[in-house]
């Protein structure tokens, strides 16, 4: 693959992410003047996207280009970034509402996703991470995953956090909190992503400990530190993710109503925002395919309708199966 082609493909992927974020922001604007301004900027992004895509297609049409490489990028990278548009509308709205408040005034938010493996919660978390990446410069992620054979308790969770901070035993929450506060500057963003909360030995007890002994004290300490040091627009996020379906964890007494959550005044009884995931309907799959049609059927609506119906029947709308089928079928059509 030529260097120019790789560069164009990367630019296309980056603009695609910008479009997704811009679409999300546009959906939250009520002021007509601001809406028109943002819509104009969004249309400019679409024009840039179309021009780059056209240039890529010209290069790929040359005999010397390795089709398999370009196909792999086009459908495994670009299609994946576009999948956030297939649904997730409520969760994107809830996150957008919280994110706008935090970005404006600073603050904190713990976000919870359930059954993330089957319902492709990773697409939503990637959208969240991409959005936050565009909101600041001093961004530090703390991705945490419990591997087979590892301890899976609150001490192990804290040890993983401390490991990112260069701290060793004895394991105490105060160590992590102090280190994180010391690292802050104006506009800092800190993101704690616990990938498989459901694999903890006692996820409900650890959730209580996490809130009482780490998360809420961290928020309080950061607020004091920022006020003392005159640090503004500091953002704290926690992504708590259950890969399997754990309905009982949603019954724990910590969840806030989406329209009432205040990231600047986090209380224990309203300290987590649940971002719901669901299966996709046939109409949602069709709508997505009409916006991002396979190259072979860009002018054949009936074929797209048939494909979308077939995808839904074969997967029952389960996102992990829908995504696998879309990637497989799109790649097959492109290769053919």
Structure, briefly:
The protein is 57% helix and 9% strand.
Q: Which radius of gyration do the C-alpha atoms yield?
A: 22 Å
CATH class descriptor name of the largest domain: Alpha Beta
**Second rung of CATH, namely the architecture of the largest domain:** 3-Layer(aba) Sandwich
Strand order of the largest sheet: 2-3-4-1-5
The profile of the biggest β sheet is: 5 strands, parallel
* Series of H and E elements: HHHHEHEHHEHEEHHH
| β-sheet strand percentage | 5-15%
Explain the layout of strands and helices.
Elements: H1 3-26, H2 32-60, H3 67-82, H4 89-105, E1 107-113, H5 121-133, E2 139-144, H6 154-165, H7 173-182, E3 189-194, H8 203-229, E4 235-241, E5 272-274, H9 282-291, H10 301-315, H11 319-335
Parallel strand pairs: 1-4, 1-5, 2-3, 3-4
Helix pairs in contact: 1-2, 1-3, 3-11, 6-7, 7-8, 9-10, 10-11
Word description of this protein:
- The chain is of the alpha/beta class and 336 residues long.
- The chain folds into three domains: 1-85; 108-274, Rossmann fold, CATH 3.40.50; 278-336.
- It is built from eleven helices and five strands.
- It has helices at residues 3-26, 32-60, 67-82, 89-105, 121-133, 154-165, 173-182, 203-229, 282-291, 301-315, 319-335, and strands at 107-113, 139-144, 189-194, 235-241, 272-274.
- Strands 2-3-4-1-5 form a five-stranded parallel sheet, sandwiched between helices.
- Helix 8 (203-229) links the parallel strand 3 (189-194) and strand 4.
- Helix 3 (67-82) runs antiparallel to helix 11.
- The longest helix has 29 residues, at 32-60.
- The chain is globular and about 60 Å long.
């Amino acid at each position: 693959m030529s260097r120019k082609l790789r560069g164009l493909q990367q630019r296309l992927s980056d603009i695609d992410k910008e479009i997704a974020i811009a679409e999300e922001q546009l959906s939250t604007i009520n002021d007509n003047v601001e809406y028109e301004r943002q819509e104009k900027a969004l249309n400019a992004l679409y024009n840039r996207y179309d021009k780059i895509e056209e240039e890529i297609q010209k290069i790929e049409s040359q005999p010397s280009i390795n089709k398999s490489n370009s196909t792999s990028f086009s459908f495994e990278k670009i299609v994946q970034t576009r999948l956030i548009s297939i649904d997730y509308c409520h969760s994107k709205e809830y996150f957008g509402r919280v994110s706008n408040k935090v970005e404006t005034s600073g603050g904190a938010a713990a976000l919870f996703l359930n059954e993330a493996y089957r319902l492709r919660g990773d697409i939503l978390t990637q959208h969240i991470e991409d959005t936050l990446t565009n909101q600041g410069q001093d961004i530090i992620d703390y991705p945490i995953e419990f591997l087979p054979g590892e301890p899976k308790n609150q001490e192990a969770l804290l040890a993983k956090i401390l490991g990112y901070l260069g701290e060793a035993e004895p394991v105490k929450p105060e160590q992590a909190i102090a280190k994180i506060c010391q690292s802050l500057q104006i506009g800092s963003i800190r993101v704690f992503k616990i990938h498989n909360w459901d694999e903890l030995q006692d996820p409900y007890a650890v959730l209580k400990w996490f809130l009482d002994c780490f998360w809420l004290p961290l928020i309080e300490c950061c607020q004091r530190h920022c006020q003392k040091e005159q640090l503004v627009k500091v953002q704290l996020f926690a992504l708590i993710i259950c890969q399997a379906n754990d309905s009982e964890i949603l019954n724990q007494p910590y969840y806030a109503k989406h329209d009432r959550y205040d990231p600047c005044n986090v209380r224990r009884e309203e300290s987590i925002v649940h971002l719901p995931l669901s299966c996709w309907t046939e109409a949602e799959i069709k709508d997505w395919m009409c916006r991002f049609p396979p190259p072979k059927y860009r002018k054949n609506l009936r074929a797209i309708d048939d494909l979308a119906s077939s995808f839904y029947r074969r997967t029952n709308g389960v996102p992990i199966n829908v995504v696998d089928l879309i990637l497989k079928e799109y790649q097959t059509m492109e290769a053919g």
